[in-house]
Amino acid sequence: MTARNSPSAAPLDLLYSEAEEELRTAVRSLLGSRCDAAGILARIESGRPHDPALWRVLAADIGTAGLLVPEKLGGQGASHREAAVVLEELGRAAAPVPYLTSAVLATEILLGCDGAESADLLRELAAGRQICAPALPLTLAPGAPLPAPVRDTGAGAGPGTGTGAGTLSGTVTSVADAVSADVLLVLADTGLYAVPAGAAGVSLTPLVALDLTRPLATVTFDAAAGTRLADPATARAAIAGALLSSAGLLASEQLGLAEWCLTQTVAHLRARHQFNRPLGSFQALKHRLARLWLDVASARAAARAAADALATGAPDTPLTVAVAQAYCSGVAVRAAEECVQLHGGIGMTWEHPAHLYLKRAKADSLALGTAGHHRGLVADFAELPAPAP
Question: Which end is more exposed in the chain, N or C (fewer Cβ atoms within 10 Å of the end residue's Cβ)?
Fold first, then answer.
């Protein structure tokens, strides 16, 4: 693995460009006007957490769904740096939209499949006309073995190459955003398939998820018809690459979440008084906030490094992503826990949004690999010996 300071490696850039700041302004303005905490809680209570109207504006009007899609396929031709900015703002708002699953994970999988069918689906995703969810457990981590694939029980079942039709049977658990998806990407023993979510033989069983803004479901296929997008080897390589990219960008969502928690906690401690003094003036609380600020600042560096490595194709990208996830995961959870505790009794209520961020942080700490899994990857990449049994 080539080191960052070697002559062949691109210099690391942690700063935001002017275009990235303009994108941030547009996304934050949209979320500020159409994604308030009261609205999110109302949608959760209604049993329909996703906001289709918000998604249309975010995905199609602003064009964020096509950031990673090349211009020749109707996308923006941007990079992971821009997608990271969007995820920061979505994390800051705890927005109930399927951006991570559709615009990042599914899009990256399709980009790894070189075929007319995958290109057509990418055009639909980039235009915001369809939502795509990979039929994979949300906890699946980069570097981990892929789960046993769904079986192709059709007459044409076999290793084969190229595109074609398949008849799929099997069950996948903990699939994120499947309930709002139009198309499911399914890994079968004969390759990768696109299956309409409403097709015959496809059933979704919603699960009780900790993060109510990112619903999970068990997806069952019973002789469901699908269109093959790639052969088994290509499919597995595409999924492996997509998991790496998604884990790296998830760090930016965790960063945005942690920043919101820090900002809201500081504002609360400035406004609340005890013994005729602002709570934030007490030294014990000052120290806790100072430590949290340092954690968030370090998380920003780690998340930006991962986004930049993915954007530039740096040789040490797997290591950089593993470091980002190993660190940002814990920071998001600590920031959310401090937010709830330092808000006192109001932080424990349903009406205050702090619990949304705590649940998102806890769920994100399991998504795409735990911090422990990524620390193990860091040890492998750095060739550190494992602890003695």
Answer: C
Write down the pLDDT at residue 270: 80
CB within 8 A of 84, min separation 6: which ones?
249, 252, 303, 304, 306, 307
Would you say the C-alpha torsion 225, 231, 232, 234 has a positive or negative sign? Answer: negative
Cα–Cα dist 64/55, whole Å: 10
The total number of residues shown for the chain amounts to: 389
Q: Give the burial string for 50-64 (b: 16+ CB within 10 Å, else e).
A: bbeebbebbbeebbb
Report DSSP letters for 170-182, one per residue: EEEEEEETGGG-S
DSSP state of 15: S
SS3 of 221, please?
Answer: strand
Helices 371-381 and 317-342 pack at an angle, to 10 degrees, of 150
CB 44 within 8 A of CB 67: no
Question: What's the first-to-final CA gap in the chain, in angstroms?
Answer: 28
Cα angle value 257/344/49 (rounded, 5°): 40
Residues 227-268 have pLDDT tens digits of 999 999 999 999 999 999 999 999 999 999 999 999 999 888
What pLDDT is stored for residue 12 in this prediction? 80
DSSP state of 137: B
What is the reported pLDDT for 160? 42
Q: Residue 169 pairs with which residues in a beta bridge?
A: 151, 222
The token pair that represents 269 in the structure block: 């401690």
Long-range Cβ pairs for the range 371-374 (8 Å, 24+):
371/325, 371/326, 371/327, 371/329, 371/330, 373/141, 373/143, 373/144, 374/141, 374/247, 374/321, 374/322, 374/323, 374/325, 374/326, 374/329
Nearest-Å Rg of the Cα atoms of the chain is 21
- Going by their DSSP bridges, the two strands 191-196 and 202-207 should be labelled as unpaired
Q: How high is the pLDDT of residue 284?
A: 73
What share of the chain in percent tops pLDDT 90? 69
Query: Which ranges of 100-162 would DSSP assign to H, the alpha helix?
Result: 107-111, 116-126
Residues of the chain falling short of pLDDT 70: 1-10, 155-164, 273, 276, 279-282, 386-389
